[in-house]
Structures are given as structure tokens and as C-alpha cells.
């Protein structure tokens, strides 16, 4: 497009929905401000580009040129890997192909304003961007509070917090109130040293960037953003919530399943439904799955539950549910493989969101004024859960270790019947503040104006 000439931005998302979605939303925001967008995406988890007709997609493959065929990384190589191992492999395998793809894009003639890469890619993207003389902005898809904890990893390690995780679970982390030891953003892994390397590479990559873009807003995380920016000598751009910016991209086409979910929600009373979903990466044991199923059923509340294939370890989908479980539920409960979460949370029938507290889910719930039941699984989700419960006070924590049928039944029922209202009011207040931040002269709008000015002034 002629009018976007000289305004090209290259984006490099991490290939998981919790990272790809906010990058695509950010692409929509830049596009609306007159930029053209090229997305360099790994062959691993490559998306369907026809869903995003405004953007140009380029596959970067770790296969040698001419080898062709399906990318082996998506099949045998990754099966059974824990998340830390998977990220290590992605970073290793795609570093060189990314460098080559970026050089090809930049050498293509059209001026490139900057690269926006996911923070987890770390300093590899810094080296590649320097080589071709392009400024690099970083998108951090998680919140500022959890980033404070990541940035404190060296200190926490020196103080011995990581070696006593099991024995001091309920102790406060005095350096990072209100976190407790059990809230530290670790991941279950066979290779804790590698986790430490990934985190420190992310933090160093942020420090050496030309700026950090956050999917958060000042009225939610002002203190944490200020703490971080006093230690990081780079500009911060908290532009969130991304999904609430008007970007004028075509709406997603609705699938048959989406329509069925909407129809089902239409039949429920206002604020009566528990929406349960644990994001795109977390998995649970079969025992936990059954406790959740019975707890939801026994609560006698209506529920919509996303059970992603792969959510329950060692099973395909719902085969471990007892025979007739669904039939006995009647219209009270609905289990689906995936849904349009933004639409579900915006529906007036939804009363509470039982979530793993991924950052996107957290922001999406807050922005619809829906209080939460928090069952964090790993990493930043633990920090998010503590902030949801103790700082913003828009949810309660239901720890995985406490999750038996009776406890679930009790927590779910009380979230809908008793204490939902106060939390909902607080959540609605945050929803309003988010809208203000996005409005004229709001902080997110002002940061976006500044970001656009900065990007246009980059001299690469
Ligand atoms: C991961 C980490 O878990 C999270 O903590 C980190 O901040 C980002 O990466 P994920 O586990 O997928 O993300 O959770 P979350 O951040 O909540 O992202 C899930 C995304 O998938 C959300 O945007 C949500 O709207 C979407 N989603 C989820 C759907 O559209 N449909 C569904 O059925 C479930």
C-alpha cells in the first residue's frame, strides 16, 4: 500500500497463543496508525495467515533450505518436552534462520522502521537487529508485577529462595511484597539452570532494547512500572489493554461452535455462569481433572468449561469422565475444546472466571469486570494470582493442592452467590479505569502517540 511506504514494522512473536495473540493485537494497533506489518513466524505452530489479511507473514524454518516437508520440530522432537526445554530448543533452532530472514527483509529495499520481538527471544534478536542496523523494541506479554519478580531472580537466588521452595512455601518474600515463596514465577522443569538462563536473557534483552511495550495500563500497575523503569534505562510503553484499542481490523469469523456457545449463554441467567479455562499451555493430572468435573457439577451452578485437547495429561480429551456424566448435567454444563474467550467474558451471563491467571486472561477478565477464581499453574501466573487476590482484590485463590471436589464446590458456589458482588464492583472500577487510560489523553493513548513518534524518528 502506497500510503504505508517507509512505515514498515517487522514483528517476531513467540509461537504460543498467549504470546502470539497480544503480538497480533499490537500489529493491529500499529496498522491502524498507518504502518505496514510483516510478521516473521517460526514454522513451529505457524498460524493461518488468511485470518490476518492485513499483515504479511513469512515463515522462518530451521530446516535447511530445500529440505522441504513438514517441520519436524512440531512432531517427534518436541513431544514430552517440558516448557523450559521447548523454549531452549526454539531459541537455539530459530536464532540463525531469524537472523537470515531479518537481513532479507531489511535488505529488501523498503525502509524498515523497527523490529518488535517477544521478550522471551532474548538477546539473539538484539544481535540480529544490530547487524542490520534496525532498532529493536521488545513486547513483554506478561504484566509488570511478574517482571519485577523475574528481574529479581539473581537477588532471590543469592538469598537462597529457590533452594528452599518446598519447605518455606508460605513465607513472605520480603524483597517483593506481597509475594510469598509459593508465588515465585518458577516452572516445573528438569533443568532449573536453563530456566534461570532464559529469564536472565529475557531481562538483559529488555535492558538493551530501544523500548518495552507492555500489555498493561498505568492505573493497574503504576507502582510496578515505576519500580522497573527506575532500574531500566529504556523507555516504557504501557499501552494496554491491547484488545480494547479500536484497530478497525475485520472481526473474527464465528465458527459453528462459537454460535452454539453464544446460544447456550443466551439461555442462562445474568451473572450465573462459571467460565473455566486454563489457557493454552498448562496441563493437569487426570485426578485433578476429575475433581474439577465433580466440583463443578456438585456446585449446581451453570458452567462453561474449556478442556483443550492435551489439557489432561495422558488423555486425548474427555475419555476419563465417567459414562453419562455429561448427559446427567443437562443444560447446566457445557464442555468445549476452545472458545472465543473475549466474547464469553463480555457476555452478561458470565458471573465468574475460574482461570490459571495467564496474563492475557487476567487482563481480559478485569476489562470485562468479571471476578476470578485463581488456580495458577506455573511462571508469571503465580504472581498474577497473588495480585488478583491481595492487591486488586478481584478474585480468590484456589490452590491446586487444595483442589478437591468439596472445596471446589464451596469456592465456586460462594463466588457466584455470596462474595461475587464486592469483587465485581472493584473489577468494574478497573474496567472503567482501563477505558479511561485508552480514552483521549488517557495514559495508554498518550504512550501510543509517543511510541509512534519514536518509531518514526528511528534513523535505521
Ligand atoms: C502463557 C502463560 O501461561 C501466561 O502466563 C503468559 O502471560 C503468556 O503465555 P496462556 O497459558 O496461554 O499464556 O494464558 P493466557 O495468557 O491467558 O493466554 C491465553 C489466550 O488464549 C487468551 O488471549 C485467551 O483469550 C485465549 N483463549 C483461551 C481463547 O481465545 N479461547 C480459549 O478457549 C482459551
Automatic annotation (TrEMBL):
Q: Does the keyword Repressor apply?
A: no
Q: Provide any one GO MF term from the record.
A: UDP-glucosyltransferase activity
Q: What is the superkingdom listed in this entry's lineage? A: Eukaryota
Q: Where is the signal peptide?
A: none
Keywords assigned? Glycosyltransferase, Transferase
Keyword Ion transport present in the record's keywords: the answer is no
A Pfam match is: UDPGT
Q: Where are the transmembrane segments?
A: none
The entry's family comment says: Belongs to the UDP-glycosyltransferase family.
- What is this protein's record name? Uncharacterized protein
| Native source organism of the sequence | Eruca vesicaria subsp. sativa
